[in-house]
């Protein structure tokens, strides 16, 4: 097996691992919506996985998969196999891939550390979500609060980009023909992107609103966004829809694991 083939399989395994995480996040959100549990962030989902039969083995496998996904993100950022280019839009996409890589490295390290009891966090609060990690650090500095307010716009931008990608079905150009033979996968992927986009937008709004309120230990993350959605009028319905959307995002990740055009060779690897 050549290097390119190995990296291709690793990237696909990474997408699958990402899907596993979002199945759990979405399922917990659905259970919270119907009053049978509590919504969690991605780290909470990994802890939940540990409680399942053979949870330690599953968590190690998912952790390795998340490392693989992070590696693929770095390849996307540096080698540009997707052809994003070097104009302003392309560089922004590639920077986003690099940031995603860092976030998934953090998730992977967390997954492995939980198995070996190196992390004793309880999972409470939004600070356990890697989405909020950079905000937490900035909120811990006086000058950082002003920068954090500006950077809080980033999740909003990511969320809007997700929704636009859903509207334009921009994900299709990265998928091989035949992914939508049954005619249901495309709308599921669109629904998935809208749901995740809404979560990002809520995180950004909470960060903007709480720029002078949040401390380093409780910067807003996915768990806070889901709790805020649940607190709306008819919030249980909204949370149910978002939870189903996050499960749909897991399906989208599994679709990418099978049909994604990886193009390792184009990255010069």
Automatic annotation (TrEMBL):
It comes from the Bacteria. The keyword Transmembrane applies. The chain crosses the membrane at residues 15-34, 54-75, 95-123, 143-167, 188-214, 234-255. InterPro entries: DUF1206. Pfam families: DUF1206. Residues 14-78, 95-168, 193-260 form the DUF1206 domain. Keywords: Membrane, Transmembrane, Transmembrane helix. This is Uncharacterized membrane protein YidH (DUF202 family). It comes from Amorphus orientalis.
